[in-house]
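Hi D.,

Good news: the full-assembly prediction came through. Inputs first.
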Amino acid sequence: MHEMSIIQSLADSVIEHLPTGTRAEKVVVEVGSLEHLDADVMQFAWAGVARGPLLRDAELVVETIDVLVGCGICKREYSPANPTYLVCPNCQHARPEVIRGWGVMLRTIEASPRAGHGVAETSEAVG
Amino acid sequence: MSEQNVMEIQVVENVKKINDEVADLNRASLNRHGVLCVNLMGSPGCGKTTLLEDTLKKLSGAMTVGVLTGDLATTRDARRLAHYTDQVAQINTGRACHLEANQIRKGFDLLDLAALDLLIIENVGNLICPVSWDLGQHARVGMFSVTEGDDKPAKHPYIVLASDLVLLNKVDLLPYVTFDSDRFYADLRSIRDDLEVIQTSAISGEGLDKWVSWIRSLRDI
Ligand SMILES: Nc1nc2c(ncn2[C@@H]2O[C@H](COP(=O)(O)OP(=O)(O)OP(=O)(O)O)[C@@H](O)[C@H]2O)c(=O)[nH]1
Ligand SMILES: [Mg+2]
Ligand SMILES: [Zn+2]
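Then the structure:
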């Protein structure tokens, strides 16, 4: 439901990290599966947001990160198959402490030179 | 574009860093003024504003309480709460389904933080999105009500996972609705078996004292 605001921030971050004179070809983002972000909706939002000369036609790759929790009782780490059942397979307590599964991380940008822009150029506004 | 011209840039950047940084700033401001902040999250109509009306009544004279209440477009909740405190402001989120930290930051300007002991944030009625946004609160409370059905913890496990306390409201209606308490608690306990649950009712007043004690216990820490 909040894919649009995430994609806006993502586009801002990509532009911030693009070397001057380049444009993005591909953007890889990791999404924790606790985040309630739908990959298709993210693609849709990306198509709407990535319209300026620095991001246009850049491919968005969304990689989902599985949840990893640590048991608050016996410390065993486990990846629950189902978010509604977080009982520890070792000690049968449900005291999950989330190690991985929240968060949205920009990981990789593939950039290429922009035609006619070999020299420094300031970033564009998104929107 | 030829392949050799493509450069790969490795970045590890939290896309929500702006929100998270502002949330940390909010927490710092609250700490500086000694204000405890609770983020109340629950579905539309589960009884958040009603609970806050009762909470403000109960705490009147004992604590100075402020409320920031989020809603897409109306100011109705703030107007209801303004009967009990002048430290209340409505935050309209427009189309957004949750509050973000910068809206809370702006909300601080509408209140006298130095005068407060407790700030309660009534999040937008939604069991999903608010969970993912840190506002700078000290504690998160997830609220369900019996009229929504006993399957809500199973359908919305993340709010259970992220909350420090769960409220089950409208228990005065238990005789009239099909709500299997055993199932509700079993589902909740398979997500977090140590999570405290307080059953509340605005009609009978059940649980309000427990809820207020829970808030007070946080302040003592
Ligand atoms: N029977 C009963 N009704 C309640 C209780 N608490 C709230 N209500 C009623 O539930 C309706 C919604 O209450 P609100 O307090 O406005 O709910 P809310 O969660 O603030 O709603 P939104 O802000 O729109 O998400 C109102 O008609 C309340 O009178 C309760 O404990 N028992
Ligand atoms: Mg309300
Ligand atoms: Zn264990």
